Amino acid sequence: MIYSPYMEEGKDRSSFTRITLQAVVVAVVLVVGFVGGIAVGAGGTGKVFSSIPLIGDGLDATPDESADMGDFWKAWNALDARFVETHASSSIPSSKEKLWGAIQGLADAYGDPYTVYMPPEEAKVFQDDISGNFEGVGMEIGVKDDLLTVISPLKGTPAERAGIRAGDSILSINDTPTDGLSTDEAVKLIRGPKGTEVRFKMLREGEIIDITVVRDRIEVPAIEHSLDQASGVYTISFYSFTGNSADLFARAVQGFKQSGSDKLLIDLRGNPGGYLEAAVTIAGHFLPDGSVVVTEDYKGKRENIVHRSRGKGSVSADTKVVILINQGSASASEILAGALQDEGRATLIGERSFGKGSVQELVKVGGGALKVTVARWLTPKGTSISDGGLKPDIEVVRTQEDATAGKDPQRERAIEFLKTGK
Length: 422
Description:
The protein is an alpha+beta fold. It has helices at about 25, 70-80, 95-110, 120-130, 160, 185-190, 245-260, 275-285, 330-340, 400-405, 410-420; strands at about 20, 115-120, 140-145, 145-155, 170-175, 175, 195-205, 205-215, 225-230, 235, 265, 290-295, 305-310, 320-325, 345-350, 360-365, 370-380, 395. The strands form four sheets. Strands 1, 2, 12, 13, 16 and 17 form a six-stranded antiparallel sheet that branches. It has a six-stranded mixed sheet with strand order 9-10-11-14-15-18, sandwiched between helices.
């Protein structure tokens, strides 16, 4: 199964691109043969763009009369008149470069890690990345509690093999401190050619550790599903929501039905998301047609968008369902888990999810791209996914010691619940 830039998008409307996972962050960290995440069309066609349509024409350029720009021009002119280069890294920027820096500062003032301005060179890298032209370490990163954080390393990737874990805080990349660094800037440091190294200084449970990862091409694993004969529990594990995840999940559901089991375990641990349409389609196996899966809340700035199940509830309502989540479960994983939890179709077991529940748009400005958070995801009961993620119904922690010893108390607790109902 291949997963691309960890971008999720519901529809492409009015020539703008909407990114629902902190997409660009990891787009450049991953390498896949298929760059996805930009699903378009109300019917969920799952088309993938090779370039990004940006809002650019018809934008309002009317000055805000309430803003006194005098101090801005004083600073501009003072720098022009007085700045002297004192070391090799300093330089006299062109007028365009100063404008780009001003827009970056304006975006930063909003205090949202996903609202950023990418100058032309960075914007081009972004477009190249979502076209699938990148190599890296195979992990999703985002910002949590003002720290650059690993959402999840992908299974079987260099990041996982090197020992990087979901929840690790990244303190430095190749000796560059990440304090104040945007995810987009971090990605530029992390990406690189196959065979080269990237060094991380991580903070994990109060301890600082050094990890070196050798970059490679990334192959994301396919959905895995099987019946545990001893417990009678059928498990479906998948690691991202790709363009073909819905089809793969449908086949896994057929395997579940043929097994004769009435106990289903869906493992979304370490799944950082992907296509919104895949999450909505998969939810349709459990929810009646027309049921709310997730709502894009624009807080009155435009009409909310409600995504509804188009399925017929192919999985029997009598089926006991558990979903395993952890802090590596993000975005589309949270959309699916939140919908089934709210509708009483699944019990969530594990640890609180990551909490990536916002939507971004790309706006063409100054030759570059302004990425703006425009909405948040709400579960069917109105819970904002961004507000701390999803809380499991039954909390079970899996420690590093458990993982090292090959123990999985979360899965064990899920099997116990499926067998006993408590």
